[in-house]
Protein: ABC transporter ATP-binding protein
Organism: Nonomuraea antimicrobica
Amino acid sequence: MIEFADVHVRLGRRDVLRGITASLPERRVGVVGANGSGKSTLARLVNGLALPTSGSVTVLGMDTRRDGGRIRRGVGFLFTDPDAQIVMPTVAEDVAFSLRRKRLARAEVERRVGEVLARYGLADHADHPAHHLSGGQKQLLALCSIMVLEPDLLVMDEPTTLLDLRHSRQVAALLEEMPQQVLVVTHDLPLLAGFDRVLVLDEGRVVADGAPAEAVAHYRALMA
Ligand SMILES: Nc1ncnc2c1ncn2[C@@H]1O[C@H](COP(=O)(O)OP(=O)(O)OP(=O)(O)O)[C@@H](O)[C@H]1O
């Protein structure tokens, strides 16, 4: 459950979000809107990477202003650019790095890493240099590094931007399967088809909120 209560965000001299109020219990929540409408800022509010100037954001029952650290341990955040998330030389080492704070036995780390790489189709690349992967494979690697931590909630900022149609469909199928709640910021309108709810942002406000077909139609009209 994600709850925005009259959230305003002012960055520099700009009102980036202007009074967002929404309770989001749905499993698949999409956010669309024009460039600069405030989508990434909204996503960053969910794990306390951005804080409201006024109003409050409650995630997993905690206030992001007070409990940012605990919230970040429960919320996986996937950025657009997977290169920004790759920190270790090989694919398997990169996923294992996510588990460093768990103090697990080496065999258990290997088991979990092997399992997640197999689930996301990267098992054959385990010992390959992470930076040699294709853009789509890097995006899947970034997802593995998050999912190995079994987050309670996943936030994705334009996860399919770099992906070809096949990898975009793979990400869509993975989103469909995941038991966790997922909030996805995207310009990829077909990705939203199976979602439970879609918010449309315009100049920092929610201007449509509902089932994907209606929300996307509203967005298309706005962009016309
Ligand atoms: N640190 C900052 N200081 C000042 N303005 C900022 C800052 N970060 C973002 N902004 C501005 O806030 C507005 C919203 O940015 P945001 O990245 O949330 O939009 P977005 O909807 O995700 O855009 P895009 O689709 O282009 O990624 C933009 O006009 C941006 O220039």
The chain has one domain: 2-223. The longest strand covers residues 14-24. The chain has seven helices and ten strands.
